[in-house]
Design a protein that fits this description.
Largest interface: A-B, 42 and 42 residues
Number of strands of chain A: 3
Radius of gyration of chain A: 21 Å
Number of helices of chain A: 7
Oligomer: homodimer
Helix content of chain A: 40-55%
Strand order of the largest sheet of chain A: 1-3-2
Shape of chain A: globular
Largest sheet of chain A: 3 strands, antiparallel
Distance between the termini of chain A: 41 Å
Structural class of chain A: mainly alpha
DNA sequence: TCTCGATATATCGAGCCGATACATCGGAGC
DNA sequence: GCTCCGATGTATCGGCTCGATATATCGAGA
């Protein structure tokens, strides 16, 4: 589990960091959290939850004391509420601090960004700039590819390629705005790059400085 | 094979409609053709080619007469050139004429659009409008979802959702332009809605009227 | 009461990717 | 001429993920 992407693990840990939940609720919030970036199905979520329990990152809060229907078969399938263990909390912090090349690949960037509110400013900057350079490489390849094959395809195919290209260009502009905002919000005090394992701070969301992303006005109704 | 998406089958048939090719070349062109819409790996392509041969849609042009190295093992693995059979050509025409709901889902729309140059105008219109209404449904859901969860997430998460929303909005605007162009290019003669199985027309690309998609100017260098 | 949809957990077949292996060929460098 | 290396070329395997499906409860409404 989570050998390939680890995206789901990260997202689940992050959501359960706020509040305990059961799978059904978790999946709904998951697909809202990640927006149009990614969606997961039950066939992926439930095995992942099991794996996270087996790894010790999650604990099943089995509320046998609470309302259990149990009218049916002896197996009595009731709600299973998952809660983050101490190891799970620590694991989430580790994932938050990761600013390696993986963090700005297609599959990972969305989740990392979704939790930027709990991420150090230095990590945020590295991830944003890494993502941008990644997309600029792709842009270069797409442009030369379109230029090379301009004569070989009909107009609709070229239009599809052009549209894809502009999507990536828009993505880069978005990143530029974000980076610019990060730079503008740079206070005099640099973010404390603590590698200690959550020693003193017992607070849940230790965001001392509000990041304030761009686009204060929602734009349209 | 090709039970779920059929995208690869469609794209392979369409590319081999123009010229015979071997797998390696096919994959390169495939990933250019579909732009940023989709990419396929060898692990998907080669089994699909085998399946298409087994179904009788492709023929292996094994050029034993041409240069065969054969210095190595007795199996002598040389180039395998794939060519469209008559059944394959007919299959491609069928896929081109498909304007059912599947044609405007996420997985299928890109390929269908890539071959719009060989598609009837009536089918093009149905697919574009179907796609647009599909995205507008999604837009509605995303908007209400963001409105409902505005207070539950931090600013970066909301920014991610907003950006996803604007991506879909941009997609709808793009479709609007395309549909408008289709309408403007509507000549007096309606496209012959023939359901016959490619009876008279032996021509390769039977595009009698040039579709002329929007954005004549490439915009930027 | 009976149906229907939302809530809730779980599994299975099949598609698809990434990595990898194997083999050839043309060119760069020596 | 020689070797190394990257592009060309075909092929497979492990495993992640999806869509469909099965099962069961609950609240709302006909």
């Amino acid at each position: 589990m989570s050998r390939r992407s680890g995206v789901l693990e990260f997202a689940v840990l992050g959501l359960l960091h706020d509040a305990p939940m059961h799978g059904y609720e978790l999946r709904k919030r998951l697909n809202v959290l990640l927006g149009s970036f990614r969606a997961f199905s039950y066939g992926t979520l439930y095995p992942c939850l099991k794996s996270l329990v087996a790894q010790g990152f999650l604990v099943e809060d089995n509320p046998d004391t609470e309302y259990v229907p149990a009218t049916a078969l002896n197996g009595k399938r009731s709600k299973i509420v998952y809660r983050l263990s101490a190891e799970g909390k620590q694991r989430f912090e580790e994932l938050l601090a990761d600013s390696g090349p993986d963090a700005w690949e297609d599959e990972h960037f969305g989740v990392h960004f979704a939790f930027f509110g709990q991420t150090d400013r230095a990590v945020r900057m590295r991830v944003l700039e890494g993502r941008r350079s990644r997309l600029e490489e792709r842009l270069e390849r797409m442009r030369s590819s379109i230029a090379r094959t301009r004569e070989r395809f009909d107009d609709y195919t070229l239009e599809l390629q052009r549209h894809g290209l502009e999507s990536v260009e828009r993505e880069v502009r978005w990143l530029n705005e974000l980076i610019e905002t990060e730079r503008a919000n740079r206070t005099g005090r640099p973010a404390a790059g603590d590698t200690s394992t959550s020693d003193g701070r017992g607070q849940e969301a230790g965001s001392s400085d509000p990041p304030r992303p761009p686009h204060d006005r929602p734009g349209r109704s």
